[in-house]
Amino acid sequence: MEEADINKKIVISEEIVVPKVPTEIVTMVGSSVAVTIFDRVLKTGGLLHFLEPEWNKINELTCKYGDVGIKSLIQKMLKNGSKRENLIANIIGGATIGEFNIDTLPIGIRNVQMAKKILDEEEIAVDIIEVGKELGRYVSFNSETGEVKIRIQKKS
Question: Exposed (0-12), middle (13-18) or buried (19+): which is 141, by Cβ within 10 Å?
Fold first, then answer.
């Protein structure tokens, strides 16, 4: 399939996409985090874009939270026939944007920590970790090849 023929899906936030057909999944992250997971054998993949590190057990249980969303993304991959040992993840985002309270870690750092923690607990290998700094990132993930393209946002 030529790149011009590939489907395209734009993810705003709080969404998991595990397409059935080859798709370029595009999102933009600041303090939020995009986690991609690719199955090296089945040549399929998915992307999660989450905003907060963990579910507070009060609000609705959604993929807005990294601890919930990453496990959901993994489960969707496994349900589609993937085996854990064939999966490889990438973590992108977690920038420190704006002001934050000196007594707590910025949400971007906490988001990245949660992504690393859950992927480690779930025994999913991690390839690319492109996180931190003070600028957002544009992310493009090819669900058929696993290729990730990252472009750092320019300062305005």
Answer: buried
Helices (H), the chain: 66-79, 107-121
Q: Which of 40, 136, 43 lies closest to 92 in space, CA to CA?
A: 136
| Largest CA-CA distance found in the chain, in angstroms, rounded | 51
pLDDT tens figures, 116-127: 999 999 999 999
* Percent of the chain surpassing pLDDT 70: 93
Within 10 A of 116 (CB to CB), how many other CB atoms are there? 16
First to last CA, the chain: 37
Residue 149 in tokens: 């393209």
Residues 28/93, Cβ–Cβ less than 8 Å:
no
Sheet-wide strand order for 33-39? 15-17, 44-50, 33-39, 87-93, 125-131
CA dist 49 and 117 (Å) reads 16
Neighbouring CB atoms inside 10 A of 33's CB total 30
Please count the other Cβ atoms lying within 10 Å of the Cβ belonging to residue 10: 11
* Residue type at 26 in one-letter notation: V
